[in-house]
Amino acid sequence: MTNLPINTLVDPWNRTIDYLRIAVTDRCNLRCFYCMPAEGINYLPKKELLTYEEIIRLAEIFASLGIKKIRLTGGEPFLRKDFISLLTNLKKIPGIEAVHITTNGVLTHQYLDQMQEIGIDGVNLSLDSLDKENFYKITRRDEFDTVMKTLGGLLDRGIDTKINMVVMHGKNTQEVVAMAGLARHRKVSVRFIEEMPFNGSAQSATQNNWSHVRILDELKQAFPMLTKLDSHPSNPATLYQEPSHLGNIGIIPAFSRTFCDACNRIRLTATGTIKNCLYDEGVLDVKALLRSDQTDDDIQQILIATVQKREKDGFAAEKNRTVDQNISESMSSIGG
């Protein structure tokens, strides 16, 4: 083990955890079929969600343990009332160097000026189709024009932007090359993600034969000059550059899980459950700790111990699930 400060989160595999993903709600205004059923999911009562005060307190504790980057997710985070106030307060926490957001873009445009003013460090925009009709088929909502307006607004303001496209056999694979083309004239990172089984039902979504290998093959056929870029080992995306493009292209093997060896992130669900891995079933009810008489020091030590239970990779985490061996959660309830 390297000589790290005592108040640093290090797992049994010597990986330092410095990135926290926080889901602020399980609610979403889209119904993407790979995330939840058409009828939606049973949303949680408000009292079951962490309050903003609890999120800030926990973020401060995590910052004291070496967390440097925070990403806010949902559901759709902009559905949470006064979300901008939470972003503003997170940016003020000593030790937090970057605050990012993952959003579907439906409500985001009206807040872009405020996001720029408070210095949001980056936005991941979910966009699975560039065809309005196909967008509707995937999301079950007619919001394509709104999302594209948000994308334009982000880029016009110079906010660091990544586009996340989940690649799904028979649904949008015909658009992979066109989506990559968005990086031709704009400084945007277009990232292609393997489909995962978190669709809110017991029905498997892993019959997708579009692995990261096939996605890369498809891209190389269209862009033969595509070259691999150097990136931080903890980056889940393998990055590529087409010489004529201003932006870049990334591929995330989210189901193949080839990036686990360097994973530096931990998750907090909207209900206050800590997940050491996307594929585990939750390892700590931190909300109960926050609502008891536990001190910050107490919680700090519990979090250190919790990270020490982290599995080697996503396959081990999935295998060791005890309550529900078949993944049936919605990504909306986990935190995208």
Features:
336 residues, 12-stranded mixed β-sheet, 11 helices, 12 strands, 28% helix
Describe this structure in words.
The chain has one domain: Alpha-Beta Barrel (TIM Barrel). It has helices at 52-64, 83-91, 112-118, 132-139, 144-156, 176-180, 212-222, 286-290, 296-307, 314-319, 331-334, and strands at residues 19-23, 69-73, 98-103, 122-126, 161-167, 189-194, 227-228, 238-241, 248-252, 265-268, 273-275, 284-285. Helices cover 28% and strands 16% of the residues. Mean pLDDT is 91; it is low at 199-206. It is globular. A hairpin with a 4-residue loop joins β10 and β11. It contains eleven helices and twelve strands. The longest helix is centred in the first third of the chain and has 13 residues, at 52-64. The chain has 336 residues and is α/β, with parallel strands linked by helices. A twelve-stranded mixed beta sheet has the order 7-8-9-6-5-4-3-2-1-10-11-12. Keywords: 4Fe-4S, GTP-binding, Iron, Iron-sulfur, Lyase, Metal-binding, Molybdenum cofactor biosynthesis, Nucleotide-binding, S-adenosyl-L-methionine. This is GTP 3',8-cyclase.
